[in-house]
C-alpha cells in the first residue's frame, strides 16, 4: 500500500486549533497548593530572591528560569520556504521550534514575533529583552538583514545568540556533506559545488563548506535572478564574496558538478540537471516544506546519487532540528557568553562522527529499519536518536570551555551525561516508534465498529498517515452519511455490511467455517449464519481467513462480548492457556507496561507466570528490555498472605525459567522505582541500578485501579488494552476511547501483525 505522504490541510489546522489553541503553554515548576506556597512564590517571599539578585546579578540563574529559557525570535520575513509572510503567520513555526527545543533538549522557549523589518528596531528590541533569556535563537529572518542583526546582537549581548537558519543549517549540512563525500571517496578541496539560493542559509552554509576545505573557485551560487556574478549590480556584500566572473545558467554550470546544495525554493532542480552531474552526485535539496526536487525524481534520475532533503519522511533528513536543541543545550549548560566557530565546528564533527557509530535499537525501531548503518541512505543521525543530546551538547560545552566562552565549566562529564539522559522526554518516544514502524509495512485493519464518529475520525488519520489499509464494517448508508457529515475523505476505503445481500456469499462462507470450528460446541449451521451477521464475528473471521490482518473492535460493546468471538474464531497462541491484557502508560521516565489489566480476575501462580511471559515477549518485540516487578503489599517476604505468597512463587518460577531476565518480587509498587531504597535495603536485587518497566499485578482489581489512577491523576497518555496471547492481533477499544487512543491501538496492532 502506498503511503500517503501529503498531510491533509484540515488535519494540520485542526491539530493547531484543537483544545487550547497553539502548541505551547506555560506551566509552574513549584508547589502552589497552600497559602504558604503562594507567600513564598509571590509577595512577601519573592522579595528575597529579588534582593539576592540585586546584590549579585549572577543569582538570576539561581532563582529564575533564565538559564533554561531561550527566545525564538522572528519577524516572519523568510518563514521556511514560504517567504515574507509576516510575524503572525510565522508564529506557528516559532511555536514549533519551541516544541522541538523542549522535546529534544528540555529547553523552555518563549516565541517572540516582532512586527518590524527595521534592523535597528529589531536589534534594540532584542537587546532590551536580554535580562529575561539564557539564549536567543533568531529564526526565519531574510537575508541580508539577518546578517547585520545577528552580528550586532552577538557583539552586544552576553548570552548565546545564533541565527538558526544560518548556522544550525550550516552545521548539519556540513556534517552530512563531510560524510557524503567520504562515502563516495571524493575530496572536499576538489569538489565542484552548485548552490541554489543566496540568502541566509545558503550563504552561511557555503561559508561553512569553505571552512571545511571547499574552494571558493569551485562554487557557483544562484538566486532568483540567476547566477551570483560580478556583472550584477544588485548583490549584497556576502554574496559578492561568492560571485563568479561572468554569467552562466544553472543548467550549464551544473554539468559535471559533484554537489548540489538547495536552500532556495521548491522545484528549481530538474532530473536532466542531475543527470548531467558528475559520478556519485550529492544532492541536498533542503527547501522546506517542498524541496528543490522530490526525493523520488532525484533518485530516479541517478541511481548513484546521495540524496537528502529537509523532510522527515525520506532518508537523510538534513534539517537544522538536528542542531539547535543540542547546540543551545551545551551552550546553556556552561553558561556560555556566545556561540563561536569552535562550538559550531565541534557540533559539526560530533554529528558527522555519530552517524558512523552503531545505531541503537530504539532508533532502528522508530524508523522501522533492521540495521541503519553509515552509508548512502544514512549519512547523518536521525532526529529521534537519543544520543544526539548526550553527544552534541557535551561537544559544544567542551568547545565553549576550551575557547574561553564558558563561565560555568563542567567538571564531571559522566555526571553531566547522566543529567542529559534524564532530561530526554521519553513519554512520546515509544508512540512515535510504534507509529513509524506501522507506517513502514501497513496492514489491513478491519474496524468492527465503523458506525461511530470517533472511529471514523481515527480511521481518517490512520489512512492519511499510511498506518493501515482500513476496512469498515457496518451499514453502508449510515457510514457514508457520517463520513459526509464530518467532511471526511475516505474514498477508496472498503465498507462491508455483513447484512447486505451482496455480502451473503462471503457471510455464508464464514458461517460454514465457523460451524466447522464450533459444531461440537453446540453451534448449528443456522446459529452460525445468525452469528456471522454480527460484526465482531464477521471481523474476526476476516482476520482468521487472511482477508484482514488485524481487528479493532469494541467501542460500543462490553469487553467479554468482543473477546469471545476472537477466542472462538482465531484462538490462542500454541501453548497459551489464557489470554491477558496489557496497558502501556507513557510516562516522562519512559513507558510502563502493566498486566493483566483486562481479563483474569484472580490469576493463579501458573497464570501469573504466563501473564508475565506474554508481557515480557511483547515488550521485547518493541525493542525494549523488560525489567519485571511482581507487585503486592509485601517486600521480599516481609508479609504473609495469599497475594504475597503467590507473587513470591511466581517470581521464583520466572527467575528459574528465565535466568537472563530481570525479574524481581514480590514487592510494593514504590520499590519497583526507588533504586536508592532498593540499593540500601535489598542490594541483592536486580532492580538496584535501574527501576522496573513491566509491572505484574496480583489480581484484576489492583491492576485496573492502578492504571486508571495513573491515567487520570497523572494525565498520562496510554495505549491499551493490548490483548496478549491470541494467534493474530485483535484489540478491544474501551468505551470512551479518543481518536488518539484508537490511532495508537491501530498502530500497535499493525506493528504486531508485521
Ligand atoms: N533544511 C533546513 O534545515 C533549512 C532549510 N531552509 C530552506 O532554505 C530556503 C531559504 O531560506 P532562507 O535562507 O532562510 O531565506 P532567505 O530569504 O534568506 O533566502 C532565500 C534565497 O533563496 C533564493 N530563491 C528564492 N526562490 C528562488 C528560485 N526560484 N531560484 C533560485 N533561488 C531562489 C532567494 O533569492 P532572491 O533573493 O533573489 O529572492 C534567496 O537568495 C527555504 O526554503 C528554507 O525552508 C532554511 C534553513 C534551514
Ligand atoms: C528548517 C528551517 O529552519 C527552515 O526551513 O527555515
Ligand atoms: Mg528556519
Automatic annotation (TrEMBL):
The entry's active site is 97
**Which residue range or ranges hold the Malic enzyme N-terminal domain?**
21-154
Q: Which UniProt keywords apply?
A: Metal-binding, Multifunctional enzyme, NADP, Oxidoreductase
Record keywords: DNA repair included? no
EC number of the protein: 1.1.1.40
- Note the InterPro entries from the entry: Aminoacid_DH-like_N_sf (IPR046346), Malate_Decarboxylase (IPR051674), Malic_N_dom (IPR012301), Malic_N_dom_sf (IPR037062), Malic_NAD-bd (IPR012302), Malic_NAD-bd_bact_type (IPR045213), ME_PTA (IPR012188), NAD(P)-bd_dom_sf (IPR036291)
GO BP annotations listed: malate metabolic process
* Malic enzyme NAD-binding domain mapped to chain residues: 166-401
Q: Does the keyword Transmembrane apply?
A: no
Give the Pfam families listed for this entry.
malic, Malic_M, PTA_PTB
Concerning SUPFAM superfamilies, the annotation shows: Aminoacid dehydrogenase-like, N-terminal domain, Isocitrate/Isopropylmalate dehydrogenase-like, NAD(P)-binding Rossmann-fold domains
The molecular function GO annotations come to: acyltransferase activity; malate dehydrogenase (decarboxylating) (NADP+) activity; metal ion binding; NAD binding
Residues holding NADP(+): 79-86, 288
Q: Which residues form a coiled coil?
A: none
The UniProt annotation places a divalent metal cation binding at 139-140, 165
Q: Which family does it belong to?
A: In the N-terminal section; belongs to the malic enzymes family.
Name of the protein described by the UniProt record:
NADP-dependent malic enzyme
Organism, scientific name: Siphonobacter curvatus
Taxonomy of origin reads: Bacteria, Pseudomonadati, Bacteroidota, Cytophagia, Cytophagales
